[in-house]
Give the backbone structure.
Amino acid sequence: MLFRSQEGCGCPACRRYSRAYIRHLLKAKEMLGMRLCVLHNLYFYNTMMEEIREALDQGRFGDYKKRKLESMAKSLDQ
């Protein structure tokens, strides 16, 4: 699936729409479903890039990378 909403995600798509509704939109091939996926993904990558820049500035990128990969692997297992 292109969209994987996460608890605590601050993107407008996750705040306003349920995962079930977004899935329905995607299954029905409604354009809004894809637009919400794009919105979520852009928010995710922009937020991650902010975190990466901050970690690089503080000299702790290695720790950040390890924690991020662990949390992403854990969310895939759920």
